[in-house]
Amino acid sequence: MSAVIQPAKAPGTADTPRETSGTRLAVRRFLRNRLAVAGLGVVLFFVLFCFVGPLVYSTDQTHTALDQVNLAPSGTHWLGTDAVGHDELGRLMYGGKVSLIVGLAAGALATVIGTLWGAVAGYAGGWIDAVMMRIVDAGIAIPALFILLVVSAITTPGLPGLILILGLVSWLVPSRLIRAETLTLKNRDYVLTLRAIGGTHARAILRHILPNSVSTIIVATTFQIADAILLVAYVSYLGLGVQPPATDWGGMLSAGLTAAYSGYWWLILPPGLAIILVVWAFNAIGDGLRDAFDVRGRG
Amino acid sequence: MTATQASAAPAAEPILELDDLDVVFTTESSKVPAVRGVSLQVRPGETLALVGESGSGKSTVALAAMGLLAGNARATGRAVIDGTDIVGADEAGLAALRGRTVSMVFQEPATALDPLTRIGKQIAEVIRNHGDVSAKDAAARAVDLLRRVGIPEPEKRAAAYPFQLSGGQRQRVVIAMAIANDPALLIADEPTTALDVTVQAEILDLLRRLAAETRTGVLLVTHNMGVVADFADRVAVMYQGRIVETGTVEDVLLRPSHDYTRRLLAAVPRLSVAEPDGRAPAGDPRPDDGSGGGDATAPVVELRDISVVFGRGKRAVHALDGVSLVVRPGETLGLVGESGSGKSTAARVALGLIPPTSGTVSLFGADLARTRSRARRALRSGIGVVLQDPVAALDARMTVGECVAEPLRVHRRGLSAQERRGRVEAVLDRVRLPRDIVRRAPGELSGGQRQRVSLARALVLEPRLLVADEPTSALDVSVQESVLKVITELQDELGFACLFVSHDLAVVQQFARRVAVMRAGRIEEQGLTGETLLHPETDYTRRLLAAVPVPDPVVQRGRRAERLATLAAGRTGAEA
C-alpha cells in the first residue's frame, strides 16, 4: 500500500449535538464488559456477606470455646471452627468487615493524597514539580511492605492507625497518574481563560482540573482498594496487622496455616479464596471503568 | 496553462465517476447518514472542487472514492475509478489502484509522513510498491520528483527527515509521493488548510502546474472559496450530505443558483484589494504611541518594547523581539501574521499569561510587573478572553450557566445566586443565545454556540478590554459571520476595546480599526487598517496580501498573474 494512504478518520460530526451523554455511554460500555460486571457482583456479594451476613447468621466471635476447636464443617458450624472454637463462617464475615473497611478507607485515602499531590505538582510545574515528583520517585523506590514491617515492629496500630499507614505508603502511584493528567489539563483554554481574568490557582485546580480528572481518579481508586486489601492481608499474615481477638482475612489465613498439616482445609481455603476473589473483583471493576472512561491505566 | 484550465476536453471518459453514492456511519448511539445520493464526475485534466461547511460530508466522499472509509461506515451506490468500482471492491484490488491510478494528499503534512524515514526513501518506497524498479532507479526518480515539486537541492534534501523540513516543504514531499506513479486521479483533501497563505499560494501553483502537465484529474476538497476560485475548473457544493449545485467555477462563484450557495458566498469575508475609494488618508499611519503620552485617551493596554525568549543559550527562541503595541479605549487593534509570527504570544503577554523577558506591560494604566498578586487579580477583572478552540474553551463538566457565571464567582463574590442568574441571563440575551441554554452541557452545543458562550463569559463582567485570539478560525464562514457581528454590535453598545488576533486578513480588515502586521516576533508595520492593508509600506505585507486568494475566479486569475510576475521580477532582480 502506498505510504501516502492513511486510515480514514471519524466522520465530521463534531458539530452535531451528541444524542447520548458521556456518562450514559460509559455506563453502557461498562455493562457490556462481562468481567467487570462479574467483579461488581462479587464485591456486592462480599459487602452483603460481611455487613448483613452477621445479622442472619449470628455467631460469638469474642469468647473462646475450647471444647469445640478445629471442628470440621457440619450442620451447626457450616464452615467448621478454628483453633479457639470460633465459628469459621462467622469469622469470615467478621474478618471480611475489617479487610473491606481497611481496604476501602486506605485506598480512598491514598487516592486523595495522591490526587492532591499530583495535581499541585503538575499545576505548579518548574522546580516545585521537580522536587515533589523526586519525593514520589524516592518513595516508590522503597518497598511498601518494608515500611509496613518497620512501622508495625515499632507500634501496634489499631484500625485507624492501620488505615493511615496503608494510605500513607500507597499514594505514590495515583499521584503520578494525576500529575500527568494535570499537565495536559492546565493548558486547556478554559484554565488559561480563568487565569487571564484573575482566577485563583486553587479555583483552577479544584473547579476545573480535578473534576476533569475524575474518571482517572475513580479508576485509580479501584486499583488502590484492591492493592490495599492485599496489603492488609500481607501485614496481617505476617502477624503485624489487627490484633486478636479482632482479625481479618490475612490474619485468618495466617492462623489457619499453622494447622495446614493437620488437614484443616476449612481454615485456609475460605479466607484465601475470599482475598483472591475480592482483589480480582476490584481489579476487574477498575479495568472495566478504565475502558468505559477511556483513560490510561495504572502505573 | 490558462487554456487547459478554462475547459477540459469534453470527449474524454471521466476518470472518477460517483453515482448515487450513500455513506452511513454506525456510531455507538445511532446511525448517521453522512453522504446521500452524491453523483459527480472528474475528467482527465480537470479539477473539480467539492466545497461545503464542516459536517457536509465532503471529506467522506473523498475517502469513499479511495475506499478508505472507517470500519463503521457503509457505502452504497457506485464509485468508479478508471473502470473499477470501489464500492464492494476487495482490499487487494484497492491496493493495486491506490497510489498508481489514484492517490491522495491530506490536510496535515506532519502526520502524512513517517517521521523516522528519510524523505527520499519514503518516495522511493511508493515507486517500488507499484513497479519492478531497482532501488537505485527508484532513488534517482525520487530525487527527480523532489525537483519537480520545487524542493531546492533535491539530491541533498532526499536524505532529510520530515522534521527537518518546513510545513510547506513537507506538503511538497507528500505531493511528490502522490504523483510518484503518475496517477490519473489526485484526491486532495484540504491540502492547504494547515498552511500559511504565502505557502498555500505556492502549493496551489505547484498542484496546478502538475495537473496541467500530466492531465491528471483532481478532486479538491476544501471549505475555502478563495482556493476554489484559484484552482478549480468546476465546483460541486455540498450541504448536509447532498450536492446542491454543480457548475463551472465562474457560474457557481459569480452566479450561484442555489440559495445555500448564495448564503455561503455572502458569508465569506472578502479582502478588499481595490484602489482607494475616496477614503481620506487618516493622518500618520504610525502614530508614536510609546512616547506620545499626550494622546486624548490613556491606553487600555500597552506593550512597551516587549521581548520574550523561550529556553536558554543556543536553543533560545526569540518569540517576541522589541514589540510595542497600544490598544485605546473602544478601539479594535487587529494583530495579523502567519503562524509562528508571535501574534498569539503577544496577546498572551498582554493577558499576563506569559511574563515578558524584557519590556513592560501596562494594563489600565498599571504596570503588571509591579502590581501585587491581589491587585493584579482585581485589574484582570477588566479583561474578557475568547480563544480559538470552541471545544477546549468551555469546561465540559460544567453547565453553560456555570461557565458563564465563573467570572462572577471569581470577582463578584457578594452576589446572591439570584443576582448571579440575572447577570448570566442578561449577558446570554446580549450574545443572542436562548436563556434556557444555561442548563445544557457545552458538549451539546455547536461550535458557533460555544464561541458565543465564551463571548458571554468574557463579557459578563463588562470588561474594558476583550482579547480575542482567533475567535472564529475554527468556525464555518456562515457561523463566523454571525459571531463577528455579535462582537461588533456589543462593542458599539458596551464600548470595550478589543485586541483581535487573526491570521485572516479579510476578517481583520472588516473588523479592526488599526492593524499590526507581525513577522518572526517583530512588528513589520502598523497603522490604520484602511491604510495599511490597502497601501502596505513593506514588501512582506504586500506579499502577504497578494497571497490571499479571493473568491472570484476572474479577479483571482488576475491577482495570480500579477503575483507571479512580481515574484519573477524579484527573482531576476535578485540575480542581476
From TrEMBL, chain A:
This protein's UniProt keywords: Cell membrane, Membrane, Transmembrane, Transmembrane helix, Transport
Ribosomal protein listed as a keyword: no
Top-rank taxon: Bacteria
Gene Ontology cellular component annotations, sorted alphabetically: plasma membrane
Disordered, as annotated region: 1-20
One of the protein's GO biological processes: transmembrane transport
Subcellular localization, as worded in the UniProt entry: Cell membrane
PROSITE patterns with a match to the protein in the record: ABC_TM1 (PS50928)
Stretches assigned to the ABC transmembrane type-1 domain: 96-286
Entry-linked Pfam families: BPD_transp_1, OppC_N
InterPro entries: BP-dependent_transpt_permease, MetI-like, MetI-like_sf, OppC_N
Keyword presence, Transmembrane helix: yes
UniProt cross-references to CDD domains, sorted A to Z: TM_PBP2 (cd06261)
Broad class of the protein's primary localization: membrane
Transmembrane domains' residue ranges: 35-57, 98-123, 135-155, 161-178, 217-243, 263-282
Recorded family membership: Belongs to the binding-protein-dependent transport system permease family.
Official protein name in the record: Binding-protein-dependent transport system inner membrane protein
Source species taxonomy: Bacteria, Bacillati, Actinomycetota, Actinomycetes, Kitasatosporales
TrEMBL record, chain B:
GO terms of molecular function: ATP binding; ATP hydrolysis activity
Organism ancestry: Bacteria, Bacillati, Actinomycetota, Actinomycetes, Kitasatosporales
Sorted UniProt keywords: ATP-binding, Cell membrane, Membrane, Nucleotide-binding, Transport
Region entry Disordered, spans: 275-298
Occurrences of domain ABC transporter (ranges): 18-265, 301-545
Membrane disposition: Peripheral membrane protein
InterPro entries attached to this UniProt entry: AAA+_ATPase, ABC_Ni/Peptide_Import, ABC_transporter-like_ATP-bd, ABC_transporter-like_CS, Oligopep_ABC_C, P-loop_NTPase
GO biological process, one term: peptide transport
PANTHER family xrefs: DIPEPTIDE TRANSPORT ATP-BINDING PROTEIN DPPD, OLIGOPEPTIDE TRANSPORT ATP-BINDING PROTEIN APPD
Database matches in SUPFAM superfamilies: P-loop containing nucleoside triphosphate hydrolases (SSF52540)
CC annotations in GO: plasma membrane
Keyword ATP-binding attached: yes
Major localisation: membrane
UniProt protein name: Oligopeptide ABC transporter ATP-binding protein
Compartments, record wording: Cell membrane
Pfam families attached to this UniProt entry: ABC_tran (PF00005), oligo_HPY (PF08352)
Family to which the UniProt record says this protein belongs: Belongs to the ABC transporter superfamily.
